[in-house]
Amino acid sequence: MSFSNWLNFGSGNLELFLVAVFSFIGLMALLYSISRVKGSARQLTEYYIFLLLLIGAGVALVFARELLLIFVLWELATISLWRLVSYFRDQEAVDAGLWALYINFAAAAVMLVGLVMIQLGLGSWSLNELRGQELPLFPALLVLTGIVAKSAALPLYIWLPRAYRSAPASVCALLSGLAENLGLVLFLKLFVQTVKVPEQFYLISAVLAVGSALIAGGVALTTRTIRDTLAYSTVSQLGFILLALSVRGYYGIASGLLYILAHAVAKSGLFFAAGTVEDASGTGELEQLGGWARVSPALAGATGILTLSIMGLPPTLGFFAKLGVVLAAVRSNLLYGIGALVAALFTMLYLSRFYARIFLGGGSSRPVKISPMAVGLVIVMAVVSIAAGIFWFVPVKFFEGGW
C-alpha cells in the first residue's frame, strides 16, 4: 500500500455547495450554543473544541479526495459526536454517547475492511484514480455498513434516538444538519461519482432507504416527546435522501442534494425551536405542552414554516426537494415511488401532530421567559427555507455541473 500524498483535497461546485450548507448549520449551532448552553469554563471549553472539531471534520471530508483521509476525518467526527452527546455527563447522557460511539466505531471498522479491499483490489486510495473502475459487491457492502450507521439508516439507526434525548439542542441540530449527512456525502462521492458497482448494490441501498423512511415515519406517529419525534423524523428524512442518491440519474442526484439543504436547514431550526420550548416550559412531553402560539407567535410562525418544509409543501424548499425524490423514485421503480409517497404521508401526519401538540390548544397560561436569540435563529432558518424555495433553481444551476 502507498500512503504517500494521502492528504489530498479537491473542490468544485458540488463541494462548495455542501460546504456552504455545513458551514451555515455550524454557524447557527455556534450562535445557539453561545446563548443557551451553560456549564463551567472547563465544560464549555471542551464543548466548543469538539463542536468546532465536528464542523471542521465535516467540511474537510467534503473536500477530501483520498479514502484513507476520508476515514480519518470520519473517525474524528465520531469521537466529536461521542463527547458532544455526553455533554451533560449524567448517566443517561454518558450511556447515549457510548452507544453512539460503539455502533459508529464498529460499523467504521467494517467499513475500513471494505476500504482496504478497494485499495488492494483496485490499487489506489485516490478517488481520482478510482473513477470508472468496477468495484465488486462485497467490499461495496462493507463500506455501505459504515454509511448506514453514520447516516442513521435501518437497521443501524438505533443510536440516534438515545443521542437526541440526551444531547443539547444545538448538538442535535448539528447532528441532523451535518454529521448524519457525512455518510450520504461518502455515498455520493464513492458510489455515484467514482466507481461502478453491481446494480444489486443500489437495490439494497434503495430498499434500506425506503424501509428507513417508512418504519421511522410510522414510529414517529406514536412518539410522546419532542425529541423522539424529531429523532425518528430525521431517520425517515435521511432515508429520502439515500433513496434519491440510490436511484441516481439527474433527478435523483439533484433532488438528493436539494434535500440535504432543505432538511439540514429545517430540522436544525426545529431543534432550536424544541430547545427553546423545553427550556422555557421545563418539559419535552407533548401531552404537557400546548398554547405556545399565544406565548410566542413569532416562534409559532417560524416553526410552522419549518414543518411545512419537512412535509414537502410549497413555497418552501422542501417541496421541490421531495417532489424531485418522488419523481426520481417513480422513474426508477414504481414500488420505490409508492414507498416514498406513503412515507411522505407519514411525515405530514406526525409533524401535524407535533405542531398541534406544542403550539395549538389551551396550554399553560403562566408567563415564561423565552430567549430572543433562539427565536431569532428559528426565524432565520424559516426565512432561508422560504427564500431557497422561491429560488430553488439557483443551487441546482450551481452544483449540477459538479457531478
TrEMBL record:
<feature type="transmembrane region" description="Helical">
    <location>
        <begin position="70"/>
        <end position="88"/>
    </location>
</feature>
<feature type="transmembrane region" description="Helical">
    <location>
        <begin position="373"/>
        <end position="394"/>
    </location>
</feature>
<protein>
    <recommendedName>
        <fullName>NADH:quinone oxidoreductase/Mrp antiporter transmembrane domain-containing protein</fullName>
    </recommendedName>
</protein>
<keyword id="KW-1133">Transmembrane helix</keyword>
<dbReference type="InterPro" id="IPR050616">
    <property type="entry name" value="CPA3_Na-H_Antiporter_A"/>
</dbReference>
<feature type="transmembrane region" description="Helical">
    <location>
        <begin position="333"/>
        <end position="352"/>
    </location>
</feature>
<feature type="transmembrane region" description="Helical">
    <location>
        <begin position="167"/>
        <end position="188"/>
    </location>
</feature>
<keyword id="KW-0812">Transmembrane</keyword>
<feature type="transmembrane region" description="Helical">
    <location>
        <begin position="200"/>
        <end position="223"/>
    </location>
</feature>
<keyword id="KW-0472">Membrane</keyword>
<feature type="transmembrane region" description="Helical">
    <location>
        <begin position="298"/>
        <end position="321"/>
    </location>
</feature>
<dbReference type="Pfam" id="PF00361">
    <property type="entry name" value="Proton_antipo_M"/>
</dbReference>
<dbReference type="GO" id="GO:0016020">
    <property type="term" value="C:membrane"/>
</dbReference>
<dbReference type="InterPro" id="IPR001750">
    <property type="entry name" value="ND/Mrp_TM"/>
</dbReference>
<feature type="transmembrane region" description="Helical">
    <location>
        <begin position="100"/>
        <end position="125"/>
    </location>
</feature>
<feature type="transmembrane region" description="Helical">
    <location>
        <begin position="137"/>
        <end position="160"/>
    </location>
</feature>
<feature type="domain" description="NADH:quinone oxidoreductase/Mrp antiporter transmembrane">
    <location>
        <begin position="64"/>
        <end position="347"/>
    </location>
</feature>
<feature type="transmembrane region" description="Helical">
    <location>
        <begin position="16"/>
        <end position="35"/>
    </location>
</feature>
<feature type="transmembrane region" description="Helical">
    <location>
        <begin position="47"/>
        <end position="64"/>
    </location>
</feature>
<dbReference type="GO" id="GO:0012505">
    <property type="term" value="C:endomembrane system"/>
</dbReference>
